[in-house]
Specification:
mainly alpha, Growth Hormone, Chain: A, 20 helices, globular, MFS, transmembrane, MFS_Cyanate_Porter
């Protein structure tokens, strides 16, 4: 893989950096700002368990569906234009969510916002690849950290705002950040009018299909999926698991879930740099596997002995998420390869991850025990072992295609 000599971060790229940061913040704040105010919403109109369940399932489902569509949309519009459209749609969904009059309109507005987020998830790695090929690790650290911050910040703010001025304002408030994220990309298009048109003309419509035949793409998909399964399963069931098997109170279980989520912040700060500068991919896969298996084993065999430690270890395991994000930029040589790889990994990964929280719940209902679901999660972690060996090889999807199929360009 060829390397690009680093140049000053801000020189000619300040707009792009600002756009990436605001874009990343908007993606997670849209997701994390709803659930804390559900009880406020129910004071105005009833929300059936079905609607609440669909709202909980909507993020990974929308991420999967619209992640698949993103490469096609990007070929038509270009990265910058599609980023602007995604944020406009997200802002519309967030404002509409604040105007909801019943459970159905709330669900539809939420799905609209999450559809835009699904597009944005896929766009971030190619945007970093395009504007910061020499600083992929640093820029991935910046935007993945911003995503982590915007995951735990809205729940802290949403309830006080809802108490002060109502849940509608609390939900619509986050549209401000989506609208702000449009400004740098609009300015960037004004500065470089013809550049992305040329890039569009050179796009190959068959590139996404090639990912199905490239082992490296499957390895990154597997790592991303393991991370997603652990995260979504924990957010869905970890509090109940801890109450049932560790004997903690519901308040303590909520605090421990926050501890689990907080482990994503140091991971987002450190992992991209460790990968980009020190090529620590294999070591980080090993850390994820060991901590994940140890945390699960602790919950299985000694849940009350050191509950906080098992939660911390389990929270470290999803470091595969920022690890995969930085590899999406590093393991693609071309613009079209980066877009296709990001769409392939994230759309399919989110689709698989969406099934597991429901499946684990069904397994628990059938067995009356959390032992089976925890063993399933341990097996999921084990799938990361062969994945780590493939993903750690310093080559690109284009290299693999050329070795197996011939020239990359059609």
């Amino acid at each position: 893989m060829s390397s690009t000599a680093p140049s000053p971060l801000w020189r000619g790229r300040a707009l792009a950096l600002a756009g990436i940061v605001l874009f990343a913040f908007s993606l997670r704040s849209a997701v994390a700002s709803l659930s804390p105010v559900i009880d406020h919403i129910e004071r105005d109109f009833a929300l059936s368990p079905v609607v609440v369940g669909l709202i909980g399932t909507a993020p990974p489902v929308c991420f999967a569906v619209f992640g698949l569509l993103t490469p096609q949309l990007e070929r038509r519009l270009g990265l910058e234009r599609l980023a602007i459209v995604a944020m406009a749609v997200a802002a519309t969904g967030l404002v509409t969510r604040g105007l909801a009059v019943d459970g159905v309109t709330l669900l539809l507005a939420t799905a609209l916002a999450f559809a835009a987020v699904g597009v944005g998830n896929v766009l971030l790695p190619p945007l970093a690849k395009k504007y910061f090929p020499d600083r992929i690790g640093l820029v991935t650290t910046v935007y993945s950290t911003m995503m982590a911050v915007s995951t735990f910040l809205p729940p802290l703010i949403a309830v006080p705002v809802a108490d002060a001025v109502g849940w509608r304002f609390s939900l619509a408030l986050w549209a401000v950040f989506a609208l702000s994220a449009m400004i740098p990309w609009i300015a960037q298009l004004v500065r470089t009018r013809g550049d992305d048109v040329e890039a569009l003309e050179g796009a190959n419509p068959a590139v996404f299909e090639r990912m199905w035949r490239i082992p490296l793409a499957w390895a990154l998909l597997a790592g991303f999926t393991v991370s997603g399964i652990l995260a979504y399963s924990a957010f869905a069931w970890l509090p109940q698991i801890l109450v049932d098997i560790a004997g903690v109170s519901h308040a303590q279980a909520g605090a421990l879930l926050s501890l689990f989520a907080a482990m994503g912040l140091p991971a987002s700060l450190l992992v991209p740099i460790l990968v980009a500068r020190f090529h620590a991919t294999k070591a980080l896969f090993a850390v994820s596997i060991v901590t994940g298996l140890t945390g699960i084993a602790g919950l299985l065999f000694a849940p009350a002995a050191a509950t906080w430690l098992w939660v911390v270890l389990l929270g470290i395991a999803p470091l595969l998420f920022p690890l995969t994000l930085v590899l999406l930029g590093l393991r693609a040589r071309t613009h079209e390869g980066a877009v296709a790889l990001s769409g392939f990994v994230q759309s399919i990964g989110y689709a698989i991850a969406a099934v597991f929280p429901f499946g684990l719940g069904v397994l628990y209902e059938a067995t009356g025990s959390w032992t089976g679901p925890l063993i399933v999660l341990a097996v999921v972690v084990l799938f990361a072992i062969p994945t780590g060996f493939v993903a750690s090889r310093r080559h690109t999807v284009e290299d693999e295609w050329e070795q197996r199929q011939g020239a990359w360009s059609a």
